[in-house]
Amino acid sequence: MNASGPSTRVGVTLRVAPLGDIRGNLATALGESLPALLAMFYPPQITKKANVAVTELIQNVIENIVDPDSELLLELRVDGDVLEVQVRNKATPDQYEAVRGRVDALTQAADPKRLLGETLRARRADQLKGGLGLLRLVSESRFRLAVRYEQEHLTVQAAFALRGNI
After folding, report:
1. Mean pLDDT in the chain?
2. pLDDT exceeds 60 at position 19
3. What residue spans define the domains of the chain?
4. Which residue has the higher pLDDT, 19 or 80?
5. What is the pLDDT confidence band of residue 134, given thresholds at 50, 70 and 90?
6. In 3D, which of 13, 138, 163, 164 has the Cα closest to residue 77?
7. Rounded distance, CA 157 to CA 88, Å?
8. Rounded Cα–Cα distance for residues 30 and 54 (Å)
9. Burial of residue 108, with CB atoms counted within 10 A of its CB: 0-12 exposed, 13-18 middle, 19 or more buried
10. CA 118 to CA 73: how far, in whole Å?
11. DSSP string spanning 94-140?
């Protein structure tokens, strides 16, 4: 690390297929192992953000597998400017629309922390659990989210700007 901040660039690409063969908690395993690699080059505040993003995005895929024979693609990139986690998997158009709707609502929210509080209260009143991961990525961890759908594949990207934030 130099005086102006981390200058090391790290990129990791991981493919897992078929998704139906996954045994154990893949989200936790990747959420812990990839930040451990990053810890060799980056401070804890970056590795913790990587843990949160990787765990959340992988868990979303695992909970919504459309085709057990399909593949998951995880790409993690860190340089002096950005921490970026991208996950791609097979999805239906309806799944894409649901994710896009959530991401659009988060992107357009004037106050994501307030939205988180309101959502927590509403979910508690309805006795609902889960479903807060993307909201927490935006409101608590300050990631920017993007989503796209191409050739039956959903890609969710979480990016955190490092300049001025570490």
Report:
1. 86
2. yes
3. 10-161
4. 19
5. confident
6. 13
7. 9
8. 7
9. exposed
10. 33
11. HHHHHHHHHHHHHHH-S-HHHHHHHHHHHHHHTT-----HHHHHHHT
49's enclosing H/E stretch is helix 44-63
Q: What is the DSSP letter of 6?
A: -
The residue-averaged pLDDT of 32-46 equals 94
Question: Which CA distances in Å does 130 have to 1, 22, 81, 120?
Answer: 38, 21, 31, 10
Higher pLDDT, 135 or 127: 135
Q: What's the CATH code, domain 10-161?
A: 3.30.565.10
Look at residue 12 and tell me whether its pLDDT is greater than 70.
yes
Q: Judge contact between 84 and 158, C-beta under 8 A.
A: yes
pLDDT at 4 over 90: no
Q: Which token pair is 30?
A: 């990747």
